[in-house]
């Protein structure tokens, strides 16, 4: 029996594999940096739902090999805090990028651009795994849904101040939010997730000057980062995450031609990593 989780700024998924059966649950956001207590409540709720569906007790999960790929795990200290708060004795608590890349590419050489509420870029080749970005909205997460939403509001305020030209999208957003003061009030309370709710409107507004400018900037960051990681023409490239697919038409031609569908999800990758933790069956066993 193995356990895995993939938790991000919008959704948290957990899976339990037992005797060839896979049980999954999906819950809301779980980022252990932006909301540690909320993320732990989500994880514990997910574990409780898993054992309920499996007809087990929470204690039955304690010895289970578990790989939890969690947004917001920035180092060993926060990983240890999460581990101490969960009823799991064999859990590896890690950031979510490795599982996402393994799920998308399997063992194949290639690159991944993970663009959801947050963002990261990664490349794997054999045993070498390199990544960049993923530093959170305050310091990074360029091209992400949260970044797009925040930058749209920044641009809208600049347009109101006469520093940029308004577009239909910025005029609409300005009216919906009650003018500049409304945007400032919204931003003061906004989380990455709430900023990210504006991203689908930006991606869908092709031909809008402000939206197109933001998509070009985001795609430029993705291309620059992938080149820095060592991507080469023809090397497989996967776009994963809720916003990622919107950039397919904005990438340089060679990158667009290298796009491949992901082989699986980050949860698949986390399960694969949990399987590596499980002890090998004794020789001669069924």
Topology (SSEs and partners):
Elements: E1 2-7, E2 12-18, E3 21-27, H1 36-54, E4 66-70, H2 76-85, E5 91-94, H3 97-105, E6 110-115, E7 119-125, E8 128-133, H4 145-160, H5 168-176, H6 179-189, H7 192-196, H8 199-204, H9 209-229, E9 237-240, H10 253-257, H11 266-277
Parallel strand pairs: 1-4, 4-5, 6-9
Antiparallel strand pairs: 1-2, 2-3, 6-7, 7-8
Helix pairs in contact: 3-11, 4-5, 4-9, 5-6
Describe the protein in words.
It contains eleven helices and nine strands. Strand 6 (110-115) and strand 7 (119-125) form a beta hairpin. The chain is globular. The strands form two sheets. A five-stranded mixed beta sheet has the order 3-2-1-4-5, with helices on both faces. The protein has a four-stranded mixed beta sheet with strand order 8-7-6-9, sandwiched between helices. The chain starts with a strand and ends in a 9-residue tail after the last helix. It folds into two domains: 2-100 and 266-277, ATPase, nucleotide binding domain (Nucleotidyltransferase, domain 5); 107-262, Nucleotidyltransferase, domain 5 (2-Layer Sandwich), CATH 3.30.420. Helix content is 43%, strand content 18%. Helix 3 crosses helix 11, helix 4 packs across helix 9 (209-229) and helix 5 (168-176) crosses helix 6. With 286 residues, it is α/β, with parallel strands linked by helices. The longest helix has 21 residues, at 209-229.
């Amino acid at each position: 029996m193995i356990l895995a989780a993939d938790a991000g700024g919008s959704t948290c998924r957990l899976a339990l594999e037992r005797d060839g059966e896979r049980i999954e649950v999906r819950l809301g956001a779980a980022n252990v940096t932006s909301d540690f207590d909320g993320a732990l409540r989500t994880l514990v709720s997910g574990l409780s739902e898993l054992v309920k569906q499996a007809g087990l007790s929470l204690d039955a999960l304690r010895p289970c090999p578990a790989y939890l790929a969690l947004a917001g795990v920035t180092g060993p200290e926060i990983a240890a805090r999460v581990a101490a708060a969960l009823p799991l004795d064999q859990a590896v608590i890690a950031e979510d990028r490795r599982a996402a890349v393994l799920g998308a590419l399997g063992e194949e050489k290639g690159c991944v651009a993970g663009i959801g509420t947050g963002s990261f870029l990664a490349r794997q080749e054999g045993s070498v795994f390199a990544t960049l970005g993923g530093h959170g909205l305050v310091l990074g997460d360029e091209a992400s849904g949260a970044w797009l939403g925040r930058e749209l509001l920044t641009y809208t305020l600049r347009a109101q101040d006469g520093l940029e030209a308004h577009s239909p999208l910025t005029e609409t957003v300005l009216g919906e939010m009650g003018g500049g003061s409304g945007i400032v009030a919204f931003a003061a309370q906004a989380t990455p997730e709430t900023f990210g709710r504006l991203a689908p409107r930006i991606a869908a507004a092709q031909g809008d000057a402000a939206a197109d400018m933001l998509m070009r900037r985001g795609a430029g960051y993705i291309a620059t980062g992938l080149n820095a990681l060592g991507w080469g023409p023809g090397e497989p490239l996967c776009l994963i995450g809720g916003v990622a697919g919107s950039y397919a038409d904005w990438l340089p031609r060679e990158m667009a031609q290298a796009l491949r569908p992901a082989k699986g999800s980050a949860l698949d990758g986390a399960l694969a990593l949990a399987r590596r933790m499980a002890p090998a069956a004794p020789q001669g066993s069924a």
